[in-house]
Amino acid sequence: MLPTSGLLEPGQACRIKVTFQPLMAVIYNVQATCSYGGRSKQKNSIQLQAAGKCAQLLVSIRQKRPEDQDVEGSQKVLHFGSVAVGCTAERQIRLYNPSVVCVSAPFRIEMASDMLAKDQAFSCPTSYDIVTPGEKKYVSVFFHPETLDVRTMDYLSIMPSGCAAQTLLKVVGFCRGTHNPRTLHLPGTRAAHA
C-alpha cells in the first residue's frame, strides 16, 4: 500500500494504491486499517479481497505405453500391465505448471478407492505438494498386487488449489504368476522395493 502514512489538511483527500502480488492460486482476504486523529486513536477499516490467478496444472503420463490413454479432455488411464503377486511396479505421472508469472500451483492427490487402506493395491506417497511456475514435477504411483489372477482398477484424483479443474486418473493393473520377492522395474521408471 502506498503511501503508508501522511498528513492531510482539512478538506484534502488522498488516493491510496494497493498492489496485489499473489504467490499462490488461492483467494486472499485481508483487512486494511487506517488510523488517524490524535495519537491515532480513531480507526477505519476496509476488507480487501482478491483471487490469485488460477495456475494451470497439466497432468500427463511419463513414458507412455501403448495401452495408456493420455489425451487432453478425455479420461486418462495409466496401465501397469501384469505384475506378479507380492511384487511392486512403479509408474510416474508428470505435473507441469506452464505459468510464466509468479503463480505456484499447490495440489493434493487422493486415492478415490473406498477399499480399506490395507486392501489397496495402488498407492501414491505424494499427497500434497507445490509446482512452481515453469516446473515439471514427477509423482510416483505404485502397484503392489496381493491377489492372484485379478484385474485391479482404482482412481487417483489430482486436485489443484483454487479454480483449476481436478484430473481423475484411472489406474489399472493385473496380477498373475507366483510370488517373487523381486521388484519389477518397468522401462523408464525407478525400481521400488517390495
Low-confidence stretches: none
Strand percent estimate: 35-45%
Widest beta sheet: strand line-up:
4-11-10-6-8
Mean residue pLDDT: 81
**Run of helices and strands:** EEEEEEEEEEE
- Assign the structural class, choosing from mainly alpha, mainly beta, alpha/beta, alpha+beta, or little secondary structure: mainly beta
Provide the CATH architecture of the domain at 58-175: Sandwich
CATH topology of the domain at 58-175, what is it called? Immunoglobulin-like
Beta strand count: 11
Q: Give the full name of the CATH homologous superfamily of the domain at 58-175.
A: Immunoglobulins
By DSSP (H or I, 4+ residues per run), the number of helices equals 0
CATH C-level of the domain at 58-175: Mainly Beta
Radius of gyration: 25 Å
Shape: elongated
Helix percentage range: under 10%
Protein name: Cilia and flagella associated protein 65
Keywords: Cell projection, Cilium, Flagellum
GO cellular component, one term: sperm flagellum
GO biological process, one term: sperm axoneme assembly
Structure characterization notes:
The chain is mainly β. It has a domain at 58-175: Immunoglobulins (Immunoglobulin-like), CATH 2.60.40.10. The protein contains no helices and 11 strands. The chain has strands at 27-36, 42-51, 58-61, 76-83, 89-96, 105-111, 122-123, 128-131, 136-143, 150-160, 167-175. The strands form 3 sheets. The protein has a 5-stranded mixed sheet with strand order 4-11-10-6-8, with no helix packed on it. Strands 3-5-9-7 form a 4-stranded antiparallel sheet, with no helix packed on it. β10 (150-160) and β11 (167-175) form a beta hairpin.
